[in-house]
Amino acid sequence: MTTPRPVSHPRGGRRLAAPLIAGLAVLTLAGCAGGAAETSATPGADVAQDIVFALKEDPTCIDPQQSSVTTSLIVGRQLTDSLLDQNPDTGEIVPWLASEWDVSDDLTSYTFTLRDGVTFSDGTPLTSDAVAANFDAIVALGASASLANGYLAGYAGTDVTSDTEFTVNFSAPNVQFQQGATTISLGILSPETVAAPAETRCASVAGTGPFVLDSYVPNDSVKVVRRDGYDWASQLRQHEGEAYLSSVTFPIISEPSVRTGGLESGEYDVIQDVPYVDESRFSTGDYNLYAKANPGVPNSLVINTTRGPLGDEAVRQAISKGLDRDQINIIAGSISGQAPTSVLTSSTPGYKDLGDVLAYDADGAKALLEDDGWTLGSNGIYEKDGQPLTVTVTAFYAQDVLEAAQIDLKKVGIDLQLKMVSSGDFFGAIASGDYDMLGAALTRTDPDALRTLLSTASKSRWGIVDDAELETLLQEQSQTADTAARQELVDEIQQMVAERAYVIPTLETVQLHGSRAGVEGITFDSAARLHLYDTAVVSD
User: In this structure, are 218 and 326 located in the same domain?
Assistant: First the structure.
């Protein structure tokens, strides 16, 4: 049974560590739904509540604790709830599976009380022991659960006080764990799931979410069905009780034109990743566009400073100066995206405007290289010691953005080669360290995303950087409770990363999905992950 959710929700934690705040607004296009304040959709009378949602790629692994691939997290979010939730409009942290929580003054322990009556889809009750088993298993997974491990930095075990109360302990202050507890990466899975081998978990998981996995056929489709008896949604959702949809079938359709054509023909009810060039095409009354700016690190060239010329700061700075980010945004055809002005997106708490550092300066790029001993070859590419200035970016998405960057850099004498691979090969390259640069973004509603990306202690380290000064700052900000003091550290980190060009932003992006007009109520969490709990078919 489902009922509209009351307007006021007085539940809350006993004490909250103050978060850094920035605009977390959801872009609303063509009547699309987004933030928690949106009115819930109302299922149409005598209308089947089954939808087809075309994904752009195979999830590969549907375990949200292991995966950072968006398609995987779209599926995983429907199966899994988190201890806490975060309002995507205000940044406020609110209860979910935990009805209340307390944070120690030194930020080394977080005590939670679980709400009553919650069960996993395999029938097992949610208990403190189950949560402890989740966190222990994440740490045991190591690099296989790299994002989740980042949130648990310094994890020192979980003390279970009762079936409903437990304390998560850290060896050092962990200011970002509270926000991490809202993420799908720390979503809570059943004890049987977390005890299974990592490969088994990639194929099937049991969570407490509003949907249950019905089937997963790799490279073909995923199907989830409504969870009977579900009645513990976050207060940010727009109704109570079970989900409106009876089922969601996710066919895997890699070609963008096939997805958009299928939406127009009615074959698909919802599609992932509407191409930017098609935004205006679907901004009519026949469709809804659902858009949310990605917080965290924007689409960027993430540098391995141990590879050839990229160990030279002048080369990295020249690459950054050689990018016309406004033009890249135009070439990508984005209406809702924008040129980045920092190594964090403008929707990320703690963002600092570094537009001056990232300004386009083709002449400045050439001057840096020439002052560094590079000479322009007859083919228009700089050379040094007989070697051309050639670097390769490895990526599995945003090829159009990288092609635009390639054109820009050729104009300043830098040969950027593109290596487009599958998501599996991309993460394989990260594991081996065999890359010059990664074309990537990291979605996170906290500036600690930069520690996750760059720290030598991070299990999600993508940028290979040996900089003791930066490492000290990254660790210090993650352990600083005072909001103003932490902001100063975060400002310094952004300045340093941008000036030393360890991360070279290319484009701020949005998650952009489309539906036919008869499907409403798709919402995003603060990290731009989709919720289908409030989604309904209002008309055929």
Answer: no
Distance between CA 175 and CA 163 in Å, rounded?
26
The CATH number given to whatever domain includes residue 449 is: 3.10.105.10
* Type of residue at 14: R
**Torsional class of 431: left (φ above 0), alpha (ψ -120 to 50), beta (otherwise):** alpha
Report how many helices (DSSP H) and strands (DSSP E) the chain contains, helices first.
15, 28
d(CA 26, CA 295): 11
The residue among 448, 445, 426 whose CA lies nearest residue 437 is: 426
| Structural domain count of the chain | 2
Same domain membership, residue 234 and residue 382: no
| Co-location of 267 and 180 in the same domain | yes
DSSP state of 6: P
For the chain, 540 residues long, give each residue's pLDDT as a single digit of tens. 555 554 333 334 434 444 554 433 333 333 343 333 345 689 988 899 999 999 999 999 999 999 988 999 999 999 999 999 999 888 899 999 999 999 999 999 999 999 999 999 999 999 999 999 999 999 999 888 888 998 999 999 999 999 999 999 999 999 999 999 999 999 999 999 999 999 999 999 999 999 999 999 999 999 999 999 999 999 999 999 999 999 999 999 999 999 999 999 999 999 999 988 888 889 888 999 998 888 999 999 999 999 999 999 999 999 999 999 999 988 877 667 789 999 999 999 999 999 999 999 999 999 999 999 999 999 999 999 999 999 999 999 889 999 999 999 999 999 999 999 988 899 899 989 999 999 999 988 899 999 999 999 888 899 999 999 999 999 999 999 889 999 999 999 999 999 999 999 999 988 899 999 999 999 999 888 999 999 999 998
Query: By residue range, what is the domain housing residue 10?
Result: 2-293+511-537
Q: Does 205 lie in the same domain as 90?
A: yes
